[in-house]
Amino acid sequence: MRASARTPPLLVLRAAAPPTPIGPREPLPLPWKRRQPIGWAASAPPRRGGFPRACGRPTAMLKAKILFVGPCESGKTVLANFLTESSDITEYNPTQGVRILEFENPHITSNTKGTGCEFELWDCGGDPKFESCWPALMKDSHGVVIVFNADIPSHLKEIEMWYSCFVQQQFLQDTQCLLIAHHKPGSGSDKGNPSLPTPLNKLKLVHSNLEDDPEDIRLEFIKYLKSIINSVSESRDREEMSIIT
To answer: What is the 8-class DSSP label of residue 202?
Structure first.
């Protein structure tokens, strides 16, 4: 796929943080919650200089960047909003460039230290005119989710290109990639595995149907995030050990 003669501008839409509520906070719906400090005493007053008092030694939060990529009209934005509990989408508007959704999940911590985690989900537009911007989107990513419309046969061919560009050329492991066959409302819920060529047939494939089985994809996504954050934690541990030794 060739980039156009003129390089299009990369439009980044970062989801706005919710306003701080006044008065007692009501419990937020699980499994997602707003970002808040982890590892600090909630009731302790701030020390001089504006830093809160630590409960023991504070541990830096782990951060992971996940890319949502795939063909146009595959349902990436609707799925990303559902999985991060962002605003609903009522009509189709192609993503121009990328949207960045920031979120936390209290059920996801590293295996070794129980460290809290922050995630950035980059919802990337599927239009080929943004191909020249892809290297910037790929930078420092920890995982790639490839979304395709299970009811559009041409998407099976297109996702080979997305896998090649965003996974193979980044030298990511197949365990860092998740393949989602998304079923739009009214399209049925055929969960038969499509015929995928090598090496796509080695990837983990899950089905998404937000109309009939919304919690299935949520649980699968949580499993995927746990595997990514454990990989990030192990990588950080190796870096710390290399500094010590």
So the answer is: G
What is the dihedral angle through the alpha carbons of 193, 199, 205, 209, rounded to the nearest 10 degrees?
A: -70
* Angle value at C-alpha 166, between 73 and 126, nearest 5 degrees: 20
Q: End-to-end CA distance of the chain: give it in Å, rounded.
A: 46
Q: Say how many C-beta atoms besides its own lie within 10 A of residue 26's C-beta.
A: 7
126 CB contacts (<8 Å, ≥6 apart)?
69, 70, 71, 72, 73, 74, 76, 94, 95
Strands 62-69 and 117-124: parallel
Residues 6+ apart with CB under 8 A from 92: 73
> C-alpha 12: how far from its chain's center?
15
Cα distance between residue 143 and residue 128, in whole Å:
21
d(CA 73, CA 95): 10
For 211, list phi and psi in degrees, rounded to 5.
Answer: -85, -40
Task: Collapse the DSSP code of 39 into the 3-class scheme (helix H, G, I; strand E, B; otherwise coil) and give the result.
Answer: coil
- Residue 94's CB is within 10 A of a number of other CB atoms, namely 10
Mean pLDDT taken over the chain:
78
Q: Please state the φ and ψ torsions of residue 169, each to the nearest 5 degrees.
A: -70, -15
Q: What would the mean pLDDT of 175-202 be, rounded to a whole number? A: 84
CB 147 within 8 A of CB 74: yes
Kindly state the DSSP code that residue 142 receives in the 8-state scheme.
Answer: -
Reading across the β-sheet that carries 117-124, which strands appear in turn?
12-14, 98-104, 117-124, 62-69, 143-149, 177-182, 204-208
pLDDT of residue 212 exceeding 50, the answer is yes
| Cis bond upstream, residue 194 (ω within 30) | no
With 0-12 / 13-18 / 19 or more C-beta atoms within 10 angstroms meaning exposed / middle / buried, residue 138 is buried
